[in-house]
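Design job #97: recover the sequence.
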């Protein structure tokens, strides 16, 4: 088991999620929830599990279902009162055992209808959930890769089910994403070197995304810190002009996820503007408009599935940066896979 082997296993893991949940009885459990019973959906988790919920949060609200996206630590300590009998609680946790999740399970005490997404069924959160969804991604090093992308896949099916739109095409779409991921991984030598060469001299990284791609920006920055011990921050593309632009310099590396959706033109323009200030800019998702921007076009898929492909690029970039620095990605110094202390 290694960081790279975990990355390479992802297409098979997503394929297994598709096969296991196709026509699964669990969707009927969700469909049996009475219409109008819930006034809000609260989405929570920590780390990459929390970031994976960005597309879910956006999709639910676009469909007219009020959804609140909040870290489990803040939910437990500050706004637990928002959870009522009219709340549907969706919790994502790869282990189902981190300290914040333990506190949440204890506080809820089986009184709030809970849907969980975990890696196995044998954990505290799954055992205290009304509906338990499992990615079955297998063991991985402390840096989340296959558990993260399989959670994105399962959350996509979940949100389609909650909104009444889950169709056979959704399984086909996910299977297609798994095939595209395989192609991206198998051909990594054709694109990875140029991205690394362009970004390697940078001392600090800003990762930017809009809409569902905010998940990629946040998780990508976390990967750089965890796997390669590099300084990086994830931001929404809309926030970058409101102050962070002042930190742009030749020492700055900027990675933009230009998802092929309603904000793709804005992301293109931002990439060109940042590059004009001599930063090292990489645009992931589509061809760059500016000559000083290095780009990696990705196949066009549903905008809400883009993060599954986008994060593969960051996983491999983090692996290469770690290798160049003599770091073994996935070997944590100060923490571990399951966080047991706040």
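Job complete. Output follows.
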């Amino acid at each position: 088991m290694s960081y790279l082997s975990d990355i390479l296993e992802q297409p098979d893991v997503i394929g297994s999620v598709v096969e296991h949940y196709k026509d699964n009885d669990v969707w009927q459990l969700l469909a049996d929830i009475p219409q109008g019973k819930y006034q809000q959906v609260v989405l929570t988790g920590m780390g990459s599990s929390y970031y994976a919920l960005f597309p879910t949060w956006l999709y639910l609200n676009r469909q007219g279902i009020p959804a609140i996206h909040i870290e489990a630590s803040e939910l437990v300590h500050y706004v637990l009162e928002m959870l009522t009998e009219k709340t549907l609680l969706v919790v994502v946790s790869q282990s189902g055992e981190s300290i914040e999740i333990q506190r949440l399970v204890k506080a809820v005490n089986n009184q709030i209808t809970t849907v969980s997404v975990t890696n196995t069924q044998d954990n505290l959160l799954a055992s205290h959930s009304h509906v338990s969804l499992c990615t079955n991604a297998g063991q991985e090093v402390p840096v989340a890769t296959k558990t993260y992308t399989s959670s994105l896949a399962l959350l996509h099916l979940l949100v389609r089910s909650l909104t009444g739109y889950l169709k056979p095409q959704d399984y086909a779409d996910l299977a297609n994403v798994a095939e595209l991921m395989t192609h991206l991984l198998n051909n990594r030598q054709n694109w990875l070197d140029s991205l690394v060469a362009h970004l390697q001299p940078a001392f600090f990284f800003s990762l930017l995304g809009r809409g569902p791609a905010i998940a990629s920006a946040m998780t990508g920055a976390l990967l750089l810190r965890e796997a390669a011990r590099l300084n990086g921050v994830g931001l929404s593309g809309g926030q970058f002009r409101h102050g962070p632009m002042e930190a742009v310099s030749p020492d700055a590396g900027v990675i933009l996820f230009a998802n092929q959706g309603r904000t793709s033109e804005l992301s293109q323009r931002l990439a060109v503007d940042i590059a004009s200030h001599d930063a090292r800019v990489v645009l992931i998702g589509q061809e760059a408009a500016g000559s000083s921007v290095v780009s990696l076009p990705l196949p066009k898929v549903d905008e809400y599935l883009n993060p599954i492909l986008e994060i593969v690029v960051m996983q491999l970039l983090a692996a290469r940066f770690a290798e160049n620095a003599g770091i073994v990605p996935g070997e944590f110094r100060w923490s571990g896979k399951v966080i047991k202390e706040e």
